[in-house]
Design goal:
The chain is α/β, with parallel strands linked by helices and 479 residues long. The chain has 2 domains: 132 residues, Roll (Urease, subunit C, domain 1), CATH 2.30.40; 325 residues, Metal-dependent hydrolases (TIM Barrel, Alpha-Beta Barrel), CATH 3.20.20. Strands 9-10-11-12-13-14-15-16 form an 8-stranded parallel β-sheet. A 7-stranded mixed β-sheet has the order 4-3-8-17-18-19-20, with helices on one face. Strand 18 and strand 19 form a beta hairpin. It is globular. The protein starts with a strand and ends with a helix.
Length: 479
């Protein structure tokens, strides 16, 4: 048997087709939300496989020693704004109303000038940060696009948008991470938003005959496309409907944001309706839609989400520090709503560490406002460590329509993390899986594999030099 070697960047050295990899000696393997094991995990051709018999193994296979580690599925960050990775901790962006936050961020973007080079640099940093903290898939809700130049043709504006989408996909692929490029909109011209969404689909996934894989997922599963207005606070019915038509044409997932407290206030002022009323009327309350935040929802709205089959994304690392509310995650889950987890962007969270936000989700769950007439003095709603880890894996993957992600059952994509639990941070921990979240808030994985390829080894990023990524971003944003 051959020990798995240290490799150069994963995109340049794919595993030998058909060769087995055994991940051996783990303290615990988290197969899914309800199943754990201590047996070896087996991978072939980037897919988890059932334990082969002695005759099937042949005389030689690779071995990855997981001694002292808990193995989990790769984390799925269901809601990020990767461009904000270049604009963290800006003065005037903390503990302020959204009406102040938005123009401050917009001014910073304008100073840096949004184009493909900026987004390539911010995406690389954000994806690298995610991989180094165990995130193997990121859904990037890209909301900010170059303003059309005076006198520029509509085609020129669409081409600029396609170039930015290409830069996101290319940066993620270079690092070996999966990416979901969400063609978002925030007060964009509705027709231009729809035209550019269609152009992105054709440019990034279209075949020579113009065909596009149903669902908007590339053949290797490393790229997915989706659409999503920022929310009813910024976009009107026409934008939702036109982007919805692009999604229906290609089977793309739809994503938006709703029911942060400010979102409710703006919707009531602008439309005289609550956000979910508008989303329902505009055809965006359905089982292909994922809605982020949902801090201010009542019992009727929770029931409506469940009946529609819409999925949710909890983003406590954004909503709490910004004062935008605490989503009633326990109530949503109890009603049957599948809930994933996202960090949101660096303009509000400052970190893309999804496991840390899973820990935060557990900590603040009892502080969520009661939904549905909860009895005073009753037990507060709670999330266990396994609930939170499930949200960060299978829950997020479900919102993307990706049944192969977020678990390690046979047939799953071999996206996985090895977390070393042998050090002092885990001393005295009775349950090593719960300890992943409760102990060591800044925990990082030892190794990360994506589609069976190593992306992080011994805590080191393999697809690029971290310092070069940082230097490139500093040069580009001028800070």
């Amino acid at each position: 048997m051959a020990a798995l070697p240290l490799t150069p960047p994963p995109t340049s050295t794919p595993p030998v087709p058909g060769r087995l990899l055994e991940i051996r000696g783990a303290v615990r393997v988290v197969v899914d939300e309800t199943t754990e094991a201590t047996d070896s995990l087996w991978v072939r051709d980037g897919v988890v496989v059932a334990a082969p018999g002695p005759d099937e193994r042949g005389g030689d296979h690779d071995v990855l020693d997981a001694s002292g580690c808990v193995v989990t599925p790769g984390l799925v960050n269901a809601h990020h704004h990767l461009m904000q990775s270049g604009f963290r901790t800006l003065p005037g962006t903390r503990h302020v109303p959204m009406a102040s936050w938005l123009p401050t961020m917009a001014a910073a973007y304008a100073d840096a000038r949004i184009d493909a080079s900026l987004v390539a640099a911010t995406t690389a940093v954000g994806v690298a940060e995610g991989l180094l903290s165990g995130v193997t898939t990121v859904a990037d809700h890209q909301l900010n696009w170059p303003a059309p130049a005076d006198g520029a043709s509509s085609g020129s504006a669409v081409a600029d948008t396609v170039a930015i989408a290409r830069s996101i996909a290319s940066a993620a692929r270079r690092l070996g991470g999966r990416i979901v490029v969400v063609r978002g909109s925030a007060r964009d011209d509705p027709q231009r938003a729809a035209a550019s969404a269609e152009a992105i689909v054709q440019a990034l996934l279209g075949g020579e005959d113009g065909s596009v894989p149903r669902g908007g997922v590339s053949a290797d599963g490393m790229l997915q496309l989706a659409v999503g207005p920022a929310g009813v606070h910024s976009d009107g019915r026409e934008t939702f409907e036109l982007l919805g038509e692009v999604a229906a044409r290609h089977g793309l997932r739809r994503r938006t944001q709703a029911n942060e407290q400010v979102d409710v206030a703006v919707a009531l002022e602008r439309w005289g309706r609550r956000p979910l009323d508008l989303l329902d009327e505009w055809g965006w309350l359905a089982d292909d839609v994922t809605i982020a935040h949902l801090c201010a929802v009542d019992a009727g709205e929770v029931a409506r989400l469940a009946a529609a089959g819409a999925t949710a994304t909890h983003a406590p690392g954004c909503d709490l520090p910004m004062g935008w509310g605490v989503a009633p995650v326990a109530a949503l889950r109890a009603a049957g709503v599948v809930v994933g987890l996202g960090t949101s962007g660096g303009g509000s969270n400052d970190a893309g560490h999804l496991l840390a936000d899973a820990r935060l989700a557990m900590q603040v769950a009892p502080l969520a406002p009661p939904v549905g007439g909860a009895a005073a003095g009753g037990a507060p709603p709670a999330l266990t460590a396994r609930d939170a880890l499930g949200m960060a894996t299978a829950g997020s993957a479900a919102g993307l329509g990706r049944a192969e992600l977020g678990h390690l059952r046979p047939g799953a994509a071999a996206d996985l993390c090895l977390w070393d639990v042998s050090g002092v941070a885990d001393a005295g921990v009775a349950d090593p899986v719960a300890g992943l979240l409760w102990a060591s808030p800044g925990r990082r994985p030892r190794d990360v594999l994506v589609a069976g390829r190593p992306a992080v080894r011994d805590g080191r990023l393999l697809g690029a030099d971290e310092h070069e990524l940082v230097a490139a971003l500093r040069e580009r944003v001028g800070r």
